[in-house]
Design brief:
The chain is α+β, with helices and mostly antiparallel strands and 184 residues long. 23% of the residues lie in helices and 27% in strands. The strands form three sheets. A five-stranded antiparallel β-sheet has the order 2-3-4-7-8, with helices on both faces. The protein has a two-stranded parallel ribbon with strand order 1-9. A two-stranded antiparallel sheet has the order 5-6. Strand 7 and strand 8 form a beta hairpin. It is globular. It binds nickel (II) ion.
């Protein structure tokens, strides 16, 4: 099933999400539906609060970005449940970012180029993995969703002002986008 994507202004996006309990029903199905929802909106990452579920889970699939320069993205599809960021690298890179919950907004965000993460997959297998470059940035972006943060929290006051009317419209439920959204 494809879920509607919750847009800026919806309270659930600002809540600290709860750990996923071990008996949470049908996690593989939920992960599958999150991927479907994300692909439908042409995204590369989606966190559970973005479909209205305040639980610590997100999915990433960068395989659409795989090319000769980045063959490693071919298998860059992961489900992260109860992730913990164990290490954040000292090097940073500033790159454009967007979010399915903030349609039409793209801004530069500074992120670490390396993170080490412990997480469970949808079958409760535990993993510890190092992510670099674009993958690291995607993990940091999605992880922030679980703490009620959005990437626009990281942009400069000037850039926030530039986006003020767009954000204001979203908060009032005025959103223009191709995929199905849920607004206030
Ligand atoms: Ni996002």
């Amino acid at each position: 099933m494809i879920y509607p994507i919750y847009v800026y202004g919806m309270q659930v996006l600002r809540k600290v999400a709860q750990p996923v309990p071990a008996d949470y029903p049908e996690l593989p199905q939920l992960a599958d539906d999150m991927f479907k929802t994300m692909y439908h909106a042409d995204g590369v990452g989606l966190a559970a609060p973005q479909i209205g579920l305040s639980i610590r889970m997100f999915v990433i699939d960068l395989s659409v970005m795989a090319d000769e320069k980045h063959p490693e993205f071919k298998d860059a599809k992961r489900v992260f449940i109860n992730p913990e960021i164990l290490e954040v690298g000292p090097e940073t890179k500033t790159q454009d970012e967007g979010c399915l919950s903030l349609p039409g907004i793209n801004e530069s965000v500074k992120r670490s180029t390396m993170v080490r993460v412990k997480y469970f997959d949808e079958n409760w297998n535990e993993h510890e993995e190092v992510f670099t470059d674009f993958f690291a940035k995607a993990v940091q972006h999605e992880y922030e969703h679980l703490d009620g943060k959005l990437f626009i929290d990281n942009i400069s006051p000037v850039r926030r002002t530039m986006n003020r009317s767009r954000l204001h419209n979203m908060q009032k439920g005025k959103v223009n986008c191709r995929y199905n959204v849920k607004t206030v």
